[in-house]
């Protein structure tokens, strides 16, 4: 009897552990589906079961770790699109509004060191774009106005508030203030 009960418990654990329940990757109680089940129309809107999708779409790495998690609202990417390296370290975070990049786009290497921080408005680079070296130190930075590179003074005068956004995602020891900013 004990052997049968033990077998039943182990079998149940295996079945539950191997389930395809993607809800563990959800934001709150929204619908979660595989990104592979989302179809796109000519405008790249996402559909699930023939209707514009609202919820979260995910993909998994071969090792079953989360690969991508993308928020949709009526078929458009709206909210955050996130990706992870196979070792569960975040790879990127991009903020979207109505299917356009709008806010910060940040990428990290597989060790968790920030690589890039780019600010977008209406799918155009706007404000400061920062590239980091392998140690997370500022390597290069550029200033953009509607996808066109402009003088860095423009960013200082118009986009200093974005530094607060950047600092929330960066290691505390990162120095964004190169001599030109002083």
What does this molecule look like?
- The structure is a single chain.
- By secondary structure, this protein is of the alpha+beta class.
- Among the domains are: 30-88, no CATH class; 106-170, no CATH class.
- 17% of the residues lie in helices and 43% in strands.
- It has three helices and 13 strands; from the N terminus they run H-E-E-E-E-E-E-E-E-E-E-E-E-E-H-H.
- It has helices spanning 2-17, 152-158, 162-169, and strands at 32-34, 39-40, 46-48, 51-52, 55-60, 66-73, 76-84, 90-97, 100-108, 114-121, 124-132, 138-145, 148-150.
- The strands form two sheets. A ten-stranded mixed beta sheet has the order 1-5-6-7-8-9-10-11-12-13, with helices on one face.
- The longest helix is centred in the N-terminal third of the chain and has 16 residues, at 2-17.
- The termini are far apart.
Structural descriptors:
ten-stranded mixed β-sheet; disordered N terminus; 13 strands; alpha+beta; flat; three-stranded antiparallel β-sheet
- For the record, give the distance between the C-alpha atoms at the N and C termini, rounded to a whole number: 77 Å
Biggest β-sheet description: 10 strands, mixed
Tell how many strands the DSSP assignment holds. Answer: 13
Instruction: Give the radius of gyration.
Output: 21 Å
Bulk shape: flat
**Strand content bin:** 35-45%
Portion of residues within helices: 10-25%
Tally of individual helices: 3
Mean pLDDT: 78
The class by helix and strand makeup works out as alpha+beta
Low-confidence stretches: 1-19, 174-182
N-to-C SSE string, H for helix and E for strand: HEEEEEEEEEEEEEHH
Please list the strands of the largest sheet in the order they lie side by side.
Answer: 1-5-6-7-8-9-10-11-12-13
């Amino acid at each position: 009897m004990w052997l049968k009960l033990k077998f039943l418990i182990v079998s149940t654990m295996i079945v539950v552990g191997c389930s395809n329940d993607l809800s563990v990757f959800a934001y709150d109680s929204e619908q979660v589906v595989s990104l592979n089940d989302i179809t796109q129309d000519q405008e790249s809107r996402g559909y699930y079961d023939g209707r514009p999708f609202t919820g979260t779409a995910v993909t998994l790495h071969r090792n079953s770790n989360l690969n991508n998690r993308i928020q949709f609202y009526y078929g458009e990417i709206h909210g955050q699109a996130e990706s992870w390296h196979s070792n569960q370290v975040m790879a990127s975070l991009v903020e979207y509004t109505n299917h356009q990049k709008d806010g910060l786009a940040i990428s990290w290497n597989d060790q968790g060191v920030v690589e890039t921080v780019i600010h977008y408005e209406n799918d155009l680079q706007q404000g400061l774009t920062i590239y980091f070296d392998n140690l997370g130190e500022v390597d290069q930075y550029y200033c953009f106005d509607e996808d066109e590179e402009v003088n860095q003074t423009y960013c200082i005068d118009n986009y200093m508030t974005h530094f607060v956004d950047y600092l929330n995602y960066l290691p505390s020891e990162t120095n964004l203030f190169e001599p030109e900013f002083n």
